[in-house]
Amino acid sequence: MNILKRLKYSIDRMIAVVVLLGFSPTVFAEVEKETGYNMPRDVSEEGHRITWLIEITMWFLVVLFILMIIWMAIAMFKHGENHEAQYDHGDAKKQVAIALTISTVIFVIVDGNLYVNAMIDLDEVFWNFKDIDCDPKEDETCKTVKIEINAHQWAWDARYAGEDKVFNTPDDIVTLNDLYVPVGQPVYVQLGSTDVIHSFNLPNFRVKQDAVPGNITPLRFQAKKTGEFDIGCAEHCGAFHYKMKGKLTVLSVEDYKDWAQQASRSSAVAFNADDNADARWGWPWVRYSTSGQKLESEQSVTDADAKGGE
Questions:
Q1: In whole angstroms, what is the distance from residue 244 CA to residue 195 CA?
Q2: Full-model pTM
């Protein structure tokens, strides 16, 4: 009987995987290669903010570099072999005032611009989780896609709430190194790690966030273009750090709904309450205030509830 039970369980799992793969329109697609020497193309709604900060800072550095070259050229040609040396400790009040003034102007313009605009971007978008942290069970207009990502050496495990809209239940969608999101809808990710510090990096969406053992860290983005894009780890996490990559596929809203529905139903069919507890690694969804402070966690089901829902 045990052999038959295991055989039936294995067949159910195989069917679920085949259905899941078959329903994914881009599962075998290649990630589109980047071209040229610029940054990876931006396919996110708010990525232009980060791109602008990087580009304006680069232009500041170019201007400073040119000024330094001019300054050095003047010093080199003006103070040649025929120029009489003037010995000075450089601690006169006038010299100190000039040095402090120049340093202050550079700091205020370059670093001040970075600080002010970065804080605005964080407050308005990247740390603003309250605006997208809706509950689909209570709000039918909620379009936010919530994903829990568990990092470990050397892979990304992802978990979506299934059709019951609750995490850690039998119909959860669980993937490995493979994320699916809809275009034009906010995506709210919460990151955890089981071993060392990792860094979840989406270059095409201009977002990156550390996954720290013992902590849940949030991240948000929104795609404006369909396609397949790289997921990378931006924190050295061991010998096989270079292998820790995945793929994020942006689907149309309808294709995503079809994928999520079928994947959730397949997960419910393949669920086995006798699995190792590590297979159910999800956590109660964490809610944050506008200042980034942890407020509460949504109640998750117990193992008994999960068995009852089988």
A1: 14
A2: 0.76
